[in-house]
Amino acid sequence: MSFRKSNAEQLLVNPFTLINKDWMLVAAGNKQSHNAMTASWGALGEIWNYYTSTIYVRPERYTLEFLDREEYYSLCFFDETHRKTLGFYGSHSGRDCDKDKETGLTPVFDQKAPYYEEAKLVLICRKLYTQSFEEKAFINADLYTKNYSKDGLHRMFIGEICEILVKE
């Protein structure tokens, strides 16, 4: 099966289900060195006259090194048959193992960011803005306490959606 290019106006998805319930892989890097991680926090929308994705990555995550280094990243969405694989990508570090080899997912490098052949939907995104969360910016202190008691504060990335690839 191959991918066809689509555009944002033709994309018929529920972003709340797609990101929060189905999860996604955030991937960055190149053929020599790349990494992906599972994420369930994010958004799709429009800002600055661009269709955009917003993702959040903790500083402890290995994928952050690739996001910081590269201009582009991908968001890969899968059908339910890949739930266990997504769980593996979310609970193992690419510092310690080759997640692609361990799960059998096939990275593809024909775009400006790596993505996965098994995905049903891929968004190739170009970074526009990044900023780390700050404790003092939380209006509701309970959000900080509940979400950041032991791990670092997320870094936010807003990226222009440059390519949309849909599995045929």
Question: How would you describe the overall organization of this protein?
Answer:
The chain is of the alpha+beta class and about 170 residues long. It is about 20% helix and about 40% strand. The protein has helices spanning about 15-20, 65-70, 85-90, 100-105, 140-145; strands at about 5, 25-30, 35-40, 40-45, 50-55, 70-75, 105-110, 115, 120-130, 155-165. The strands form two sheets. Strands 1, 2, 3, 4, 5, 6, 9 and 10 form an eight-stranded antiparallel sheet that branches. A hairpin with a 2-residue loop joins strand 4 (about 40-45) and strand 5. It starts with a strand and ends with a strand.
Produce the secondary structure layout:
Blueprint (H helix, E strand, L loop, with lengths): L2 E4 L8 H7 L2 E6 L4 E6 L2 E6 L2 E8 L5 H7 L2 E6 L5 H9 L7 H5 L3 E2 L6 E2 L4 E12 L8 H7 L7 E13 L1
Antiparallel strand pairs: 1-10, 2-3, 2-6, 4-5, 5-10, 6-9, 7-8, 9-10
Q: Could you provide a short overview of the structure?
A:
The protein has five helices and ten strands.
SSE string: EHEEEEHEHHEEEHE
Mean pLDDT rating: 95
List low-confidence stretches: none
Q: Judging from the principal axes of the Cα atoms, what is the shape?
A: globular
Count the strands? Answer: 10
How much helix, percentage-wise, in residues? 10-25%
Q: In angstroms, what separates the terminal alpha carbons?
A: 6 Å
The helix tally amounts to: 5
Main pleated sheet: 8 strands, antiparallel
What share of residues are in beta strands? 35-45%
Rounded to an integer in angstroms, the radius of gyration calculated over CA atoms is 16 Å
- SS-derived structural category: alpha+beta
